[in-house]
Design a protein that fits this description.
- The structure holds two protein chains of two kinds.
- By secondary structure, chain A is of the alpha+beta class.
- In chain A, 51% of the residues lie in helices and 22% in strands.
- Chain A is built from 32 helices and 27 strands.
- In chain A, strand 1 (188-193) and strand 2 (198-201) form a beta hairpin.
- In chain B, helix 1 links the parallel strand 1 (4-8) and strand 2.
- The two termini of chain B are 12 Å apart.
- Classes of the chains: A alpha+beta, B alpha/beta.
- The A-B interface holds A 669, 672-673, 676-685, 687-688, 691, 712, 716, 720, 723-724, 734, 736, 738, 777-778, 899, 902, 906-907, 909 and B 11, 13-14, 16-18, 20-21, 24, 55, 60, 62, 84-87, 89-91, 94, 103-107, 110.
Chain lengths: 909, 123
Amino acid sequence: MQNLIRQIPFFFTEKIVEPFSLDKGNELNKRNFFEQIDIKSTHTLFPEYLRHPNSVFIDLSVAFLAVSLILLIDFQLQRFPSLFLVPYFLGIFPVIFSSWYGGLRAGIFATLLSVAATTYFFILTSQASLIVSATQIATAAILILEGLITSFLIDNLHIWLHKTDNYARQVSEIINKYKRVLERINDILLITDIEGNVLYATPSIEKNLGYKPKETIGQNLYSLIKFNDAKYFQSEVVKAIDKKNSFSSIFFMKHKNRGWVAIDASTSFLNGDNPNLLVITARNITEEKAADDKAKEHLNLLHTVIESTSDVVSVKNLQGKYILINSAVAKDIGKRPTEIIGKDDSSFYPSEIVKQFQKSEEKVIHSGSTITSEERITNNGKGKICISTRSPFRDKQNNIIGVVAICHNITEWKQNEEKLEELNKRITNILESITDAFFALDNDGRFVYLNKQAERLLEVAGQKVIGKSVWDEFPEIIDSEFYKKYFRAIATQKPITFEKFYSPLKKYFDVHAYPSSEGLSVYFNDITKRKETEDVLRINEERFRLLAESVPQIIWTAEIDGYRDYHNQRWYEYTGLSYEQTCQWGWKKSVHQEDMAEIESEWQRSLKTGKVYEVECRIKKGKDKQFRWYLVRALPIKNKEKRIIKWFGTCTDIDEQKKLDKRKDEFISTASHELKTPLTTIKAFTQILHKIFEENKNSNANAYLYKMEYQVNRLKNLINDLMDVSKMQTGKLEYFDKEFEVDELIKETIEDIQTTTTTHKIIVEGNAKCEFFGDRYRIGQVLNNIVGNAIKYSPNADKIKVKVNCDKKNLKISIQDFGVGISTAETNKIFGKFYRINGSNGEKFEGMGLGLHISSQIIKRHKGKISVESKEGKGSEFSITIPLQKKLLKVKNLLKRHSNNYEKTYLNS
Amino acid sequence: MKKHILIVDDDFGISEVIKIILRDSGYETTTINNGFNIEKIVMKIKPDLILLDIWMSGVDGREVVKILRKNKRTSKIPIVLISALSNTEQMAMDTGADGFLPKPFDITDLLSIVKTHVNSVIG
């Protein structure tokens, strides 16, 4: 595990690309068995040549012994037939013997000895001479050659046959020497020849691979190794032979009974210069590998865990240097992991933070326990709040070797918490500042909170009641409406709103209760005053309705947009319409079609301008479908800001009045006719008499008749004025507009007036050569009146000035007299009906005071103005200004209407 | 030959004074006090001028004008309307009458209007 830990920083810094290598780690630990035992010593033990090197003496001895032995045998065998007395026998056996045991050299010696002996004993004896024949030399040569060849062959045969034995001997020598060690080691030690044939295996092989050592002897190592590994191993061996070094490798070997066993092997050569034996020390690393795999898995898991958290996870050693970090650390610090590992905090944080960290870490190291604390860390201008958990990091021996720190950023949470707190505060503030009273009850009916308004309204102190049951504090509430309503709200979990009188406090409350799983929130208001006001309002409204219903008139109200929203019972009774049929614009159904246009335009005008609405129209009676005339009026009702909020309207039955008006019209016409007819007769007879007396030259009678005629004319004018005024009053005075020449009219009129006076001279100044559109007769009447007045009120003067002017827009006429004048106080009154003025010295003037009134009405009708400037005693000047009206369509229509009315009037009369 | 003037007025005083004035001035007159059967009367006496009161009980003066104007044999006879209502000249002329005389009138006005219209008729 220590290895593992040492690996971790590496692992994290390299980011799992090459997780870790067992080979490398193991290499450090692995101890080559042969490195431990002195390999040099083996070199002296094992000569490079496998046969022990014999001395020349030994070789000669072997050869001599072999030849002597054969000679002895030969001599013993001479008694027998000469079967054996052949030189070959003597030659061949010693050579074979010598070369077998003594090697080539011994063989050669034996060959030479046997040839010499053969030649001496067998060849020379038969010849009986010392002379050496050619045949004998040849025979000897052949023998020597034969001997040499045999020696060589036998020697090689011997070597070949004893080679393994030689290895075995060498091996066994070593084994014997180190037997005690080899039998005890857990690692496997194999010795093989260069081809991989196993020469020796330690007993540990059984434990590791299941084979008994004996079973492996003679087996080929490669056949025990997993195929691919074997190939690789072989190539490594070949390479190692060239370089004459040792090497390490990991491969799988076949277990006798169960699958593969991971082997970490170190291979070296027994003889460095002439490699022929391989010594392989192998360690079963299956478990280790499994453990490593597991560790790797754990490491992966650990990695995944610490990487998957956004928390900052780091491990520092006792020196405060980072040995493990997750990427959150790197992100937090803003450096790459490789830049962080191996460094301490001082490289990344300001000194006060470093101190803060160190202090915490020291605490952990000293106490040996996990410490959790809230930390505020400010770095690079950014502050954050962390929950830091620091734990001691221990090795296998439970020694503290570092500190593991996990830092959970709670800045946001903290901020939220602060916000929440602030919100809470704010809500409390709101609850305190709202005009509504508020209290909250928990599910047991205990006060959780109540604001000041609630304290005030309930007449309790908050501190006293909080935590206490509402039923205890307000026992009167039990079984009251409040109690029932609250219970229903809680039971149904639905908000409830009600207004109730709470008799113990003599207050009317408007209550809104909101149930929740935690209890009940109750907002309420003291509405006692409002209720009282409402009562007053209700009474007022009742009064209005009573009034509206009791008056004989039809009464209605309308919204500011003109929609009628109320009619009193009279309306429904009269029209026979229902409320639904009437409201909004439904009432129109009852109005005469001909009057509709005027009603609509007038109503819209009033809505727009806010001016009083007034029209006369015919409204249909529901019962007999007869129309009756109504005067419809409406007044705007304004609020304090003078804004219209409603229209209040009435419909007054004026049908009778209308009929009366009509009768009055008829009366006026009749009166006019009836008064004028006798007047006409009187006048005519007066004139006849006048004529007769004139013929008879009766001047006295004539003078009387003139006076009579004058009085008749006055009577005529009075009747005309009275008729006009009474018609004007009812708006029945008819006007007959047409175009006429103003100059002509003035000339005619002035001439007429001039004939009636001898005292005054009427002077006309200027002219008015313009076409005027209006009522010629009436304009003439105005002139008549004012000029007539001018004469009348200037009894001591002798002239009247009439100025006429006509521009593009207006016709202007002014009439100036030099008479009694009018006081300024009276100037406004003179146009009133029946207003008469007297002279400054009390003198009285005839007339009824109608002329100026009629004149001003006529001028008004022509959209003109009449005014007066006067000085008492000096005279007056009346000015008339009338706009020149064009023949507008409107005027034409007006004319048409008037003539229609005229006709109607006449037809009726 | 004296010109014949028909006076139609329901007021006896008026028709009498007009008759006196016109007779004194050399006209022949016939007086009737209503507009009933006016057609027959006009066709019978064939007046040179008709002085017609507008406002009469029974048949209105304007109706009489209409009736007479419809009939070819009476349509060319000049008619002067007489009225006690002020400012009715326009209306009177609109009915198709030839002249208008407001009441009360001067003798001179009556004589001049009669003279004018009697003479205007050719034949």
